[in-house]
Design goal:
229 residues, alpha/beta, Rossmann fold, DNA polymerase, domain 1, 2 domains, 6 strands
Length: 229
């Protein structure tokens, strides 16, 4: 059966989380520069944030922690890694600043807009499956100028499940009125996007700019979707 429905992850796949978060983390660093020792510059702080944030999201994907835990302790753990102690209240405060700033950033992954534009012209039905929250993810998509490309936006708070759980993929297929046979999942996370979708019976395309090669199941650049689909 011909592929008709394309299900995309959002962060790190279409919306450039690293670039956008760097802008926001820089603002947080500048606003609270007084708490940092002289030997801790922004680049060091951002590297710690990226490493610890990524590790916590991986723990979340494996159901080892909750979303509330991540939001509460993310900044506390980042600052502890550079020997700065803050309490839970201040950690939550910093996290809220990040959540307020992040959705208004507009940077997309390379070729994302042009690729979506061509796929839309080819009459594919496109959807988002994200572990983020509906209101925040919609704001990100609008800031990036890609909201209009998508039919269904499925997030963990809407589906009552998270990737890699089979339930969120089943929910998305039902909402999109799509069949497994005519659908494909495209994402950057091997556990949440790829393993989760395959366990739900979906064909997948793994997006990773570090791959250095492309085939029918793996791409290093989004534009290669146009050759596969």
């Amino acid at each position: 059966m011909k592929i008709r429905h394309l299900f995309f992850d959002l962060d790190h796949t279409l919306w450039d989380f690293e670039k956008n978060s760097e802008i926001c983390i820089r603002q947080i660093y500048e606003q609270h520069k007084g708490i940092f020792p002289d030997n801790v510059d922004f680049d060091f702080f951002f590297q710690k944030f990226s490493t610890i944030n990524s590790a916590m999201w991986n723990q979340l994907d494996l159901s080892l922690i909750t979303h509330d835990y991540l939001r509460t302790f993310r900044f506390q753990k980042v600052l502890q890694a550079i020997e700065i102690e803050i309490d839970e209240r201040f950690s939550l405060e910093l996290n809220q600043v990040l959540l307020d700033l992040l959705p208004h950033q507009h940077h997309l992954m390379d070729d994302a807009f042009d690729t979506l534009e061509v796929l839309a012209a080819r009459d594919y039905k496109m959807h988002i499956i994200s572990n983020g929250y509906q209101d925040i993810q919609i704001k990100k998509m609008k800031s990036g100028g890609i909201y209009h490309f998508f039919d269904q936006i499925i997030t963990n708070d809407i589906a009552g499940a998270r990737k890699p759980e089979k339930a969120i993929f089943d929910f998305a297929l039902d909402r999109a009125n799509a069949d497994i046979e005519n659908s494909i999942m495209i994402g950057d996370n091997l556990i949440a996007d790829i393993e989760g979708a395959r366990n739900a019976g979906l064909r997948t395309i793994y997006f990773n700019p570090e791959l250095g090669g492309n085939d029918s199941e793996n791409i290093s650049e989004l534009k290669y979707l146009l050759e596969i689909l």
